[in-house]
Amino acid sequence: MTRLELHPDRLLPADPALRDVARSIYESVRDLPIISPHGHVPVSWLADDAPFTDPTSLLLSPDHYIMRILHANGERLEDLGAGGTPLDAEQSRAAFRTLCAHWGEFAGTPVKLWFEAQLVEIFGIDLLPGPDTADAIYDTVAAQLATDAFRPRALYERFGIELLATTDDPCDPLADHARLAADPTWHGRVVPTFRPDHYLEPARAGWNALIDTLGGVSGVDVDSYAGWVAAMEDRRAYFRRHGAISTDHAHLDARMEPLPADVAEALYAAARAGRISADDGATLRRHMLFEQARMAVDDGLVMTLHPASLRNHHPATFERFGPDVGADIPISVEYTRALAPALGAFGTSPNFRLVLFTMDETVYSRELAPLAGFYPSVFVGVPWWFLDAPDTMRRFREAVTETAGFTRTSGFIDDTRAFLSIPARHDVSRRVDAGYLARLVAEHRLTVDEAHAAAHTLVADNPRKAFL
Amino acid sequence: MTRLELHPDRLLPADPALRDVARSIYESVRDLPIISPHGHVPVSWLADDAPFTDPTSLLLSPDHYIMRILHANGERLEDLGAGGTPLDAEQSRAAFRTLCAHWGEFAGTPVKLWFEAQLVEIFGIDLLPGPDTADAIYDTVAAQLATDAFRPRALYERFGIELLATTDDPCDPLADHARLAADPTWHGRVVPTFRPDHYLEPARAGWNALIDTLGGVSGVDVDSYAGWVAAMEDRRAYFRRHGAISTDHAHLDARMEPLPADVAEALYAAARAGRISADDGATLRRHMLFEQARMAVDDGLVMTLHPASLRNHHPATFERFGPDVGADIPISVEYTRALAPALGAFGTSPNFRLVLFTMDETVYSRELAPLAGFYPSVFVGVPWWFLDAPDTMRRFREAVTETAGFTRTSGFIDDTRAFLSIPARHDVSRRVDAGYLARLVAEHRLTVDEAHAAAHTLVADNPRKAFL
Amino acid sequence: MTRLELHPDRLLPADPALRDVARSIYESVRDLPIISPHGHVPVSWLADDAPFTDPTSLLLSPDHYIMRILHANGERLEDLGAGGTPLDAEQSRAAFRTLCAHWGEFAGTPVKLWFEAQLVEIFGIDLLPGPDTADAIYDTVAAQLATDAFRPRALYERFGIELLATTDDPCDPLADHARLAADPTWHGRVVPTFRPDHYLEPARAGWNALIDTLGGVSGVDVDSYAGWVAAMEDRRAYFRRHGAISTDHAHLDARMEPLPADVAEALYAAARAGRISADDGATLRRHMLFEQARMAVDDGLVMTLHPASLRNHHPATFERFGPDVGADIPISVEYTRALAPALGAFGTSPNFRLVLFTMDETVYSRELAPLAGFYPSVFVGVPWWFLDAPDTMRRFREAVTETAGFTRTSGFIDDTRAFLSIPARHDVSRRVDAGYLARLVAEHRLTVDEAHAAAHTLVADNPRKAFL
């Protein structure tokens, strides 16, 4: 068995000329609080504060990063607990053995970094996952999960989290958020995020039922387009009252294009009548997204865009397991033209903040850095989903900084369902940024003091400026 | 005259912290057999085993990499033997002098690396190409080519080739392949590859004649669409019986989109009647490519895609010299949407293997790694044509590994007509991958053992898994 | 106050294995003359040779790189003298204080490198810009600007400029150019550049008035399409007689597509009648651009393309401040298909030179290097606008060299209105290229001699071959 160790200098540049500088920069930000303004941890975990039941349902089944790599390497999703497939105790253990048996196939991916950091730093395990160590790891994790120190709130505190955002349906009553916020024994901050994607896709199956629900929940008559606007504004206000700081949007493109009022009304009426074409649905969706931007100027909720993922690429997998099992595949994205109407209208509005994420690296230097390098409202979202890995994060800084500097990026987001991986994800980001800054120092492009200041900007200032 | 030397550490990272690790990784895979599942060496060379006639027709004229750089720097293709232009002895020597006179213009390109490695390692020459050394190099090469040790089969053995694939027309009788395979004195493995591009472009001039030939060769009536399907299946089976392991496809896009049977039949009839439009031709081609995928599931031939090259960009050059003289220019490519129908149908079929190559680096992290990171049938093709160079290979690993790991790439392919460059091309790939892995070790992202295992995966396991 | 110093090894690789080699390469080209074949310095500065009036109007207000970063970080363009907003003495000083107060936000951008190099090397200032140093810097710069040694011609000589190109309207009488060239006390070389963008956009507001002017200036009846051609040829000849070496073109795409004569004539007539659609306008523009290529073959003016910037992205800013204040945002670009007609017609013409610039890095390896690696007429433009920064320049070399070598790129262009930044910009380019070459040496891909030769090619030979 190979002993599992975390090298204190992991992910820092190997070059001795850089490593000392990088270590000093990293150490200056290592222990700063975690601000996590976009993610998918269930608020109920913290509201209930119940112990986690087993290693597989906590560490494996909810994580589509792990799921898809095991699937690509020949495993069946049903054996891993995908899509809520229930696993009994023996199946949970078997799934965990499967993961460990495939551990070599995670080499080179950030999953290896995050997972091994969890084992060492959270569970104190020094065994490399593998066929021979699977049971020992499983048992050690399971035993600790049963203790109070590993209940959700204890981990939240131990992780040094300052803010954690969830992702929520606009009609969600946010009861768990309210319950948690009202709990006098709770001292953290968990906020909801308004995610109206399906409500903005009028040609999508089920849209009318969603809008009916929206009308019901908001108490607004949504038969007219004006009603849709009013109901949306009502729910955004409800989210704000429950602590929300942002809205999140993921469609096939980033276009926000206003329609004349009568056209919007006519398309809305057609959609409510169930007679809207796919093209008209996209047209109305782009108008509705523009309206979300307009509402953001009014209510101050930060708007984040995550476009251009072709969801559920494999229909048979979706039918059996539902979304979020690793079968979403990126497509190219365009921002410059797509955002021209909205930025023309709101780009210099002091109350508007727009954070632009991408899975298409080509837009970093071509579109996002130039946009954030002119518009005070625009922030370049840091690498996210698929790109949240060390080499990609380095490419991101190299592509964005020379045009936009350090002050125009969003701060790291972990975007994860894997609660226990949050510290490791932020730590990877801090290490990679420290390495990038160390190179600029070693090339005499920044002084050591300037690099330390930039590191603080990236970790501490930017997420506050973009989100808080 | 500068002495030509190959440094033993060439292409390994310069950083001393990395180089020792890189060297050890490289040495562990340096001498593994060469598996070359896609290339353009004529099988007749090995079937006939006749001595090569002269340096120019072996090393220069067939190699469009060399040809295009000389052309860009002012030389005339006819003087270089392009497109089968016959060169007499003096002209061959003159062409070789031209190459040597321009040697400085190859600096920074992989041609320099491959060619110099051939001179040193195959011919034992220590003269840097230049005006003063051209004749001496020419004469030394020519003298050795006349000896038995430099006949094709001797070189095949010396190069340590385990498998070499050719590229062949579906109607090719594969007589040379059969002759070689039947030769009891031959112990290597050369396999044909089924390349039906022109048979899948119904709007292309000459298509009907090709289909007539296809019908004749297969003995199937190709007047109906069903006949086209049956004839294709027949020829694929013929290729399989002659050892083929894969089919190769190069069109302007990667789309595979099935048509309803009646639509396919109607378009096929229109095409056979010579009345199909360019757009309908593309539609039918995309259907036919989907059919090739369906056949691949049935017969197990690996499917490789090489799309998005605008062939013969300069018409006057094409008219005079034909294809493959260096005037093919890449365009952007899209895979996520293009492959959704085929992967929806066959993506998890155990019998399906699809290897995706590109000349558009943007798809590595955005599309190919996510696809290969979910679908067990999809492999990311390693850098090929235009991208088969050290820095690009490094970018490839950096773009793909973090999402797909090491097990989902294809193994190196040399894709070359330049037989003598094959060892150097594979060697460059092994060196670059060793350097990449050494960095991951130095950054404590892999242990040394894990990096050695990854190197073996890349060189030995992946080509077998993807192709054999 | 932090002392401002320029490290002699700045921008060279930190790795000691590379730095010595890089320094030696850099030193071999550091003092070679500056050839600046594309830029925006007003010729009147050199023709008049009047002292510069104040630091702000020289160093800040004309530079959209600085302007946009200050704007993104919350400053108002009117306070910075944007778009010719007049600033009195106190406002100029206030604007300069604003710049210095925001200096930390320029960290990581090339503006920091260029500006600090100007302070140290031109003005001998060793104060880091900041709130506490703004006035001292301002006063020191102002005092020196009033002296003869800082008048434009003295600086031109001190900078070691061999050639400087301006950018000019086709109807410009070039009077300042003529006056400067005729001045017997002037020994430099400043040449105009023919920039006909607005004359090639028939659907653009104001086009007819421009064409009327063109007719008037050239003395050619422009009522017919033939007249447009003759007038253009006349003005190109006029520019050539005044020393022009190139024409420059910036449209939304790079397409050059000839129309049949009757179609061109009909569209031209419609445009002159004020009745052309946007689509037809684009069609006619692409024809007119093809005609510019045809004229280039005839008159030998080098053709440079700078496509795919969406100008004036923020309409309110444009209305108030006009163009060139930092609100132009790139879009993706396509060259392979766009240039097929023109390169098919002229690509191997000995008299044709076409330099292709981009703000979309994806075309470097995919399209530009392959085009310049086949066509003797095509040169890859070096990183320009947004991309003229150290890491991007390095990516450019890594993306282009392996396909096109060192001889097919354009030589550096500074493209700037900021006259005093020209030496620093060329210096950054030379340093970055030296670092790239040093790595190739350290990886044994080039000998030291080959790297020195390549550096000379990049700095001295390429601009002459592409432009002179």
Automatic annotation (TrEMBL), chains A, B, C:
Gene3D superfamilies with a match to the protein in the record: Metal-dependent hydrolases, uronate isomerase, domain 2, chain A
EC number: 5.3.1.12
EC top class, as a word: isomerase
GO biological process: D-galacturonate catabolic process; D-glucuronate catabolic process
The keyword Isomerase belongs to this UniProt entry's keyword annotation: yes
Any Pfam family hit: UxaC
A GO molecular-function annotation: glucuronate isomerase activity
Keywords: Isomerase
Pathway assigned in UniProt: Carbohydrate metabolism; pentose and glucuronate interconversion
Catalytic activity as recorded in UniProt: D-glucuronate = D-fructuronate
InterPro entries linked: Metal_Hydrolase, Uronate_isomerase
PANTHER family cross-referenced by the UniProt entry: URONATE ISOMERASE
UniProt similarity note: Belongs to the metallo-dependent hydrolases superfamily. Uronate isomerase family.
Protein name per Swiss-Prot or TrEMBL: Uronate isomerase
Annotated organism of origin: Tessaracoccus defluvii
Lineage of the species this protein comes from: Bacteria, Bacillati, Actinomycetota, Actinomycetes, Propionibacteriales
